[in-house]
Amino acid sequence: MSIYLDSEGYIPYTYLIGWSHYNKWYYGSETGFIKKANPKNLWTTYFTSSDYVKAFRQKYGEPDVIQVRKTFSSKESTLMWESTVLKRINAIQSAKWLNKGNGGPKFTCVMTGDENPSKRLDVRQKISQKLSGRTFSDSAKEKMRQAKIGLNKGKSYEEIYGIEAAKNLRQSRSSSMKGRKKTQTQIEATKRACSKWWRVYPPNDLPIIIQNLNGYCKERGLDVATMCGIAYHPFNNDGRFRFHLGHRVEPLTGPEDTSTLVENIQQNMISDKKTKIYKIIYPDGIEEIIRGLGEFAKQMGWPSVALYDVKDKICANGEPRKYKGFVVKTIA
Fold it and tell me: Which among 321, 330, 320 is positioned nearest to 278, based on CA atoms?
């Protein structure tokens, strides 16, 4: 532990407070220079700047854990260490931590659910009024359209930006990584990730067991980073499974008996358990029961969100709303 004490007693530090009975914790720092940061201030004159800590303290009383974790010689090094710790413990995604941001010099607060002001009706109305009448350029409109319908998903840099722009982008990213050495932890993590077994769910086919996810993605024009993201964060905010061009993937602890997998297909095809069921009524009146509205739209060559806009909707004349003559009704 390094302690820096100038003539005026300025010692920035990081600290930990917690309510062990409720398993609630907060990791922060005091770096103020006008009101001199000093470990002796903790829970005597300094009680954190977090409104979430203040609210929890008012409801449940004083914390039973109050610790000075580390002292520093400058504000910058303090904030950098605070950010490193919060990212390492993934505080903003963990329910046991009261932190809503990862600290650092450019502190931003991440709010979810009802805590997010943009979810409130009055705030959304103000935003709508402010943006009313705003015009966008044709290029901006095209970018928003592509982002909405997912035109760039699974495409290479050359397909998105063009050959010359993609070349420049790759060179700039490559030069920014030169001279940077991986830590031993990163090397071991890469080895473990590459040697893992995976269960992949191809579109409209039985699941398969593979060990080389990178090779699987290259053969099928998939983005391996997106597939890894789906493997470890499989659900959308609405609780449905995520897909990448119709594919899903799950990490396995080891090889799996393929015969057992096929015999228990209903138990292993977990996408069947979560994806909603719909009734599609064709323009000629033929009805079809499907599972996965976005996947059906992709098969028809439509934007993945097209059918969601007409699902269970009724027009002013009382007729079901349609897309290209198709009616969509939710079953379960």
Answer: 330
Tell me the backbone φ, ψ of residue 251, rounded to 5 degrees. Answer: -75, 145
3-state SS, residue 283: coil
- Can you say whether the dihedral through the CA atoms of 136, 138, 139, 142 is positive or negative? positive
Q: From CA 294, how far away is CA 68, in angstroms rounded? A: 51
Mean pLDDT of 286-310: 80
Query: DSSP letters of 209-256?
Result: EES-HHHHHHHHT--HHHHHHHHHS-B-TTSPBP-BTTBEEEEESS--
Is there a contact between 60 and 19 (Cβ–Cβ < 8 Å)? Answer: yes
| Structural tokens at position 73 | 């010689």
Q: Residue 65 pLDDT > 70, yes or no?
A: yes
DSSP letter (8 states) at residue 183: P
Q: What is the token pair recorded at 305?
A: 């969100």
Q: Within 10 A of 269 (CB to CB), how many other CB atoms are there?
A: 15
Q: Are 326 and 302 in contact (CB under 8 A)?
A: no
Q: Which CATH number fits domain 196-271: 1.10.3470, 1.10.150, 1.20.120, 1.10.10?
A: 1.10.10
What is the chain's mean pLDDT, rounded?
Answer: 78
According to CATH, where is 1.10.10.10 located in the chain? Answer: 276-330
Q: How much is the pLDDT for 266? A: 38
From the list 64, 51, 58, 79, the residue with the least C-alpha distance to 16 is 64
Among 108, 110, 104, which residue's Cα sits nearest to residue 29? 104
Pick the CATH number of 276-330 from 1.10.357.10, 1.10.10.10, 1.20.1090.10, 1.10.357.20: 1.10.10.10
Q: CATH 3.40.1440 in the chain, residues?
A: 13-113
How many whole angstroms separate alpha carbon 252 and alpha carbon 230? 14
